User: Which sequence fits this backbone?
């Protein structure tokens, strides 16, 4: 057995609550989102997890979630790397629009394709495949080496950047991964083997 990788989607953001396409727009957490981030920290603390390094995106909803978790586990000053490679999928021209208004304008089916197809990008934005093309190499070069050295690594990021990671870790197809809905503030704990295959995966729900 090698190291441990903990993935956490940020807590509820102001725009999750308002039902707006968010992407790279930099919005904060709601009170509920803050509570979810703190609860994620409590779950990890209850398991006795101590991190060696943390990674997060260039967006504050993930950064603040990361910091809340580190505060709860008693590691407020832990080295934390912020990189836009871990940012949410860029929603392009849809960013800032209300998801229901978009359905009225373009139809349910088109909006569903933009939100949950694997390789069709929304206008001016990224498909999940495009997101994976930046997230996965970053993970392989920057994050995974720590895990393979036996360290425990926290990655606080976003619904779609984490989907892209989970797709590769779990060996899922594009069609399968778009059906996976990640809860806000729900830690996913992977134990990796020395050859980087997954030894164990646990989703800390509830
Ligand atoms: O708005 C977004 O950036 C994402 C994540 O909240 O939404 P979706 O559920 O459409 O992937």
Assistant:
């Amino acid at each position: 057995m090698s190291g441990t990788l903990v993935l956490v989607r940020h807590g509820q953001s102001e725009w999750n609550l308002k039902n707006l396409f968010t992407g790279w727009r930099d919005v904060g957490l709601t009170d509920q989102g803050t509570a979810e981030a703190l609860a994620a920290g409590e779950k990890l603390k209850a398991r006795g997890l101590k991190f060696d390094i943390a990674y997060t995106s260039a967006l504050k909803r993930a950064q603040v979630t990361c910091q809340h978790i580190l505060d709860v586990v008693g590691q407020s000053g832990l080295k934390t790397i912020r990189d836009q490679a871990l940012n949410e999928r860029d929603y392009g021209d849809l960013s800032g629009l209300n998801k229901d208004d978009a359905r009225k304008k373009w139809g349910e089916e088109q909006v569903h394709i933009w939100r949950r197809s694997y390789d069709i990008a929304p206008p001016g934005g990224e498909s999940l495949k495009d997101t994976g093309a930046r997230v996965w190499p970053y993970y392989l070069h920057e994050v995974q080496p720590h895990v393979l050295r036996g360290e425990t690594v926290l990655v606080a990021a976003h619904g779609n950047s984490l989907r892209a990671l989970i797709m590769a870790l779990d060996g899922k197809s594009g069609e399968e991964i778009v059906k996976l809905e990640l809860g806000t503030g729900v830690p996913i704990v992977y134990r990796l083997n020395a050859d980087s295959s997954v030894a164990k995966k646990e989703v800390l729900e509830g």
